[in-house]
Amino acid sequence: MADTSTDVNGSHGASGKTWAKFLIPSTLGATLFLLPVPGGDTWTIPFGLMIDFVNNNFGTLVKYTLLVVTVLSAILSVWYSYGPAKPEIGTLRRHLRGDAIWTILRVLGAVFTAAFIFSIGPEFMTSDATGGVVVATLMTNLLALFAFAAFGLPLLTDYGFTEFVGALLSKAFRKLFQLPGRSAVDGLASWLGGSALGVMLTTQQYDKGVYTRREAASVACTFSIVSLPFCYVIAKLVGLADVFFAYYGSVMLIGFVCALIMPRIPPLTWIPQEYHDDTSDHTDTTVKEGESLVHAGTRLALDRAREAPNFRNFLKAGIDNLVFMWFALVPATVAIAMIAMILAEYTPIFDWISAPFVPILNFAGVESAAEAAPSLVVGFADMYLPALIGESIESKETRFLIAILSVSQLIYMSEVGAILLRSNLGLNLGHLALIFVIRTIIATPIAIFLARVVVF
User: What InterPro entries would the database entry show (predicted)?
Assistant: First the structure.
């Protein structure tokens, strides 16, 4: 039987099949990513237990899978970008064909991975302080995370969950953050599905005439925080898995404070309130006149569920996500993280850049201030770097501070920054650097307070 649309009450006319497509995947996704469960001596989430199980029982297989992924990515990136490849746009070609910078990064990722695994090459590539941290710890965790996230995150983002919860939050978003109600959906997609997902969704909405340039820039630069699963990896990396919920709660609190402030001050207020050219429909239909928030959420969720992929297309999309994450992102992340760790371990460059922050952290009573200071600036390159630099610091409070900042700073050029610069929002490198600095200034004292007074 054909399904019909919902009325203003949100559910009339929806078939049992549509309700099932909304409720079953959404409940499964919420359970996987949001349900607290016991994990040893502490509490975690089912997603974290799955990652730990794979890494604890299949560590060798994961390590050599990483090697295969990075080497294949390097070879295919060169072939698809510069070789006599066929003109058809297949999945791998679509994800791996790119400019010289991305190709070089993937080649370097393969070189760094092979050098560490086989202990071949100079010490700065094979030492535990560089390759051991990046290849053996970070990337093996990310490989398992990407495998589960590729299939798990769509349960939250593709079947109505974000639309339902986003509608409930829509009026609060307009009042608190001076943003259209529909931005709550984008914000939730970022927090649950990943920062890149949120940024791409927001920029597409601007191109369609849904947001003004300022609104889109505000959403992208305020709510595109690293997703919950990535936060778990960062918490585990710095030895904070036992206080994960306190850590993530702190991230949400700081994100809320930044969201209150950032849309009201430069550089976001410098962006003009203008819509994209050749667009005309600017009506916010998140909540219709006379409609309750629950009814609006139900309507939007069921509308999304109707268009959601069936099981076969779900698997197909999951495989496509996995190919992108493994072959396009992982090798480049290896390269960026390794270069940063080599610079941090074998050169004083980050010490020089972060020197002005040392007396500030000392004044605030932060332990190991000199060791922690580089983490305040290196996150602009990549979100994992602060955690990689700070994971060996003895003070748990200081590691807590670093883990929060690595997420709360939000603007990192290896992913979010690159997407924003390529968008039509008019943001330049100066805007992004200033947003990074302002968010750091806002987040640091709050994180210090939470670490010292609330958590430890």
Answer: Gate_dom
